[in-house]
């Protein structure tokens, strides 16, 4: 495997781990090697969007150990997504156990230290019970698979984004805060149009007033100015574990942290801007184009930035090379 050339895409590995919910309870963890799922054609996930997913990574480190980052937080978030979508809730301990199991079984696919790649872990939960009327299913399937991945965004981690005035990814009191596949289905038109226009993606505005910055597609937004890390406060964004971690790291590094509405015109005053999430890690944004005004907001990028310092500290914690003072990391 040419680890350095990996993009962010699916690669077959040896095993995936599954767990069925039937007759009101969860079964044992099962190990499978096939990539397909046999399913009833009336399964609720296929018709009524009963699907939630998670994404996390594990890293092979300098000391030879394999580290996972905040896996319990992913387990808790999947539980809250499941509740909102009226799906069976997998206990967090079982979630963690399944993640450990799938990683151990696919150890040969964990990219080597300093290859720039990592092993992406994709847990998801679907309603499998047959349902023609709209109501929650009575059967569910939880699956975790893994895939070795490289960077999410191409282009040396510097991206050019476009403000999205036309489409929303979520409604004001909808599922924006839930990690549901349906949000992504709803975002694909904006995604495809922005790529056709030469951008790396869109920055969504708040769906109610269209005044404030909401999200960067599949990542949270942050900006930096005057020694302050600023990130949107909004009920329609996904609570990113990476962003939560960066807020703690930023504070620890002496930055002020603000979670608040960010009117998009305020972009003018930001020195730096970035997208953060498990897949994006921190990806620096160099330009944001506003098609309504024709204006391009420009930001500092490169190694001599707060964004880079935050990135470095985060990655060092994830690889066991900086003190894990917040207790985020577990070894396999
Ligand atoms: C998963 C996701 C993120 C990033 O969350 P992390 O926990 O940091 O990986 C951000 N926005 C959306 C819409 C997401 O689905």
Keywords:
single chain; 332 residues; alpha+beta; D-amino Acid Aminotransferase, Chain A, domain 1; D-amino Acid Aminotransferase, Chain A, domain 2; 2 domains; 6-stranded mixed barrel; 18 strands; 30% strand; globular
Describe the structure.
- The protein has helices at 44-47, 71-84, 92-105, 181-185, 188-196, 241-252, 306-318, and strands spanning 16-22, 25-26, 30-32, 51-53, 56-60, 66-69, 118-127, 140-149, 158-164, 201-205, 213-216, 219-225, 228-232, 256-260, 272-277, 281-290, 295-298, 329-331.
- By secondary structure, it is α+β, with helices and mostly antiparallel strands.
- Strand 1 (16-22) and strand 2 form a beta hairpin.
- Helix 2 crosses helix 3 and helix 6 (241-252) packs across helix 7 (306-318).
- It is globular.
- The chain starts with 15 loop residues before the first strand and ends with a strand.
- The model has no long low-confidence stretch (mean pLDDT 96).
- The structure holds pyridoxal-5'-phosphate (PLP).
- Pyridoxal-5'-phosphate is lined by residues 55, 179, 215, 218-220, 238, 240-243, 277-278.
Question: How do you describe this structure in short?
Answer:
With about 325 residues, the chain is an alpha+beta fold.
| Strand tally | 18
Which structural class matches the secondary elements? alpha+beta
Number of separate domains: 2
How many angstroms does the end-to-end distance come to? 23 Å
**CATH top-level class of the largest domain:** Alpha Beta
User: What would you report as the Rg, rounded to the nearest angstrom?
Assistant: 20 Å
Low-confidence stretches: none
């Amino acid at each position: 495997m040419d680890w350095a050339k990996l993009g962010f895409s699916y690669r077959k590995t040896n095993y995936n781990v599954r767990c069925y919910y039937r007759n009101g309870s969860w079964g044992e963890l099962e190990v499978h090697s096939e990539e397909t799922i046999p399913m009833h054609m009336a399964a609720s996930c296929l018709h009524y969007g009963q699907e939630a997913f998670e994404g996390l990574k594990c890293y092979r480190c300098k000391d030879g150990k394999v580290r996972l980052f905040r896996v319990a937080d992913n387990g808790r978030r999947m539980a809250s997504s499941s509740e909102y979508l009226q799906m069976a809730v997998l206990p967090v301990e079982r979630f963690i156990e399944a993640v450990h199991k799938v990683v151990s079984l696919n150890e040969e696919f964990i990219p080597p230290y300093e290859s720039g790649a990592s092993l992406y872990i994709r847990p998801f939960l679907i309603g499998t019970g047959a349902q023609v009327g709209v109501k929650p299913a009575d059967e569910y399937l939880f699956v975790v698979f893994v895939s070795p991945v490289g960077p999410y965004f191409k282009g040396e981690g510097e991206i050019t984004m476009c403000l999205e005035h036309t489409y929303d990814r979520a409604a004001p009191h909808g599922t924006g805060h839930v990690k549901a596949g349906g949000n992504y289905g709803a975002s694909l038109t904006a995604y495809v149009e922005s790529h056709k226009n030469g951008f790396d993606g869109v920055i969504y505005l708040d769906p109610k007033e269209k005044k404030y910055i909401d999200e960067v597609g599949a990542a949270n937004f942050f900006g930096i100015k005057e020694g302050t890390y600023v990130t949107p406060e909004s009920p329609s964004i996904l609570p990113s574990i990476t962003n939560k971690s960066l807020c703690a790291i930023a504070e620890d590094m002496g930055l002020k942290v603000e979670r608040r509405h960010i009117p998009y015109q305020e972009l003018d005053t930001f020195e730096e801007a970035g997208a953060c999430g498990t897949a994006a890690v921190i990806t620096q944004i160099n330009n944001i184009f506003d098609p309504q005004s024709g204006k391009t907001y420009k930001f500092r990028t490169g190694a001599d930035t707060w964004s880079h310092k935050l990135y470095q500290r985060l990655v060092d914690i994830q690889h066991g090379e900086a003190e894990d003072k917040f207790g985020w990391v577990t070894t396999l």
